[in-house]
Amino acid sequence: MPRPATPVRPTGKPLALVGGPLLFEHLALFEQIEAAGGRVVLEATAEGERGMPAPFDRRKLAEDPLGCLADAYFGAILDAFRRPNDALYSWLGRRLPESGAAGIAFVHYVWCDLWHAEAERLRQWTALPVLALDLAEDGLTGPVRTRLEAFVEMLP
């Protein structure tokens, strides 16, 4: 009789990845985090969990399909452009402890003032260490990798 598979325990220091949208060129960021000794436990960029619509309320779907669609997409997707954006911080306040993140890698483009402004607010709001990483359209630069390695190294 075959033995049951031994579950693989995740390794690496747990990080939350928070910020604006990522380009294809930035997907290497996940590999860089792992190479630096970390692992992403909460993907809260525009393409991650934060950017997903809410589940549809199937009871209301038959009565008001367009209303359900609007609620799922416009009412639940959280972003820095929403003002006030307290819902974004309420969501992070729930998800960060659930994920067990020991630090936050905050990504934004230099030209994106909305997300750039959130870096300081996030630092003031959370007790977790925050590393703000400026992204370029052509991929990750050497300083991004070096700063990420130093950040992961200092996490508990």
What report would you give on this structure?
This protein has 156 residues and is α/β, with parallel strands linked by helices. The chain has a single domain (13-52, 79-154), classed as 3-Layer(aba) Sandwich (Rossmann fold), CATH 3.40.50.11900. Helix content is 40%, strand content 17%. It is built from six helices and four strands. A four-stranded parallel β-sheet has the order 2-1-3-4, with helices on both faces. Strand 1 (13-19), helix 1 (28-35) and strand 2 form a beta-alpha-beta unit. Helix 1 packs across helix 6 (142-154). The relative contact order is 0.21. The mean pLDDT is 89.
Q: Would you summarize the structure shown here?
A:
The chain is 40% helix and 17% strand.
| Main structural class | alpha/beta
Total tally of structural domains: 1
CATH fold descriptor: Rossmann fold
Overall shape: it is globular
Query: Radius of gyration from the CA trace?
Result: 18 Å
- The termini sit apart by 42 Å
CATH class: Alpha Beta
Strand content: 15-25%
From the coordinates shown, what is the CATH architecture? 3-Layer(aba) Sandwich
The count of β-strands is: 4
State the low-pLDDT regions, or none: none
Order of helix and strand elements from N to C terminus? EHEHHHEHEH
Largest sheet data = 4 strands, parallel
Number of helices: 6
Residues in helices, as a percent range: 25-40%
Report the average pLDDT across residues: 89
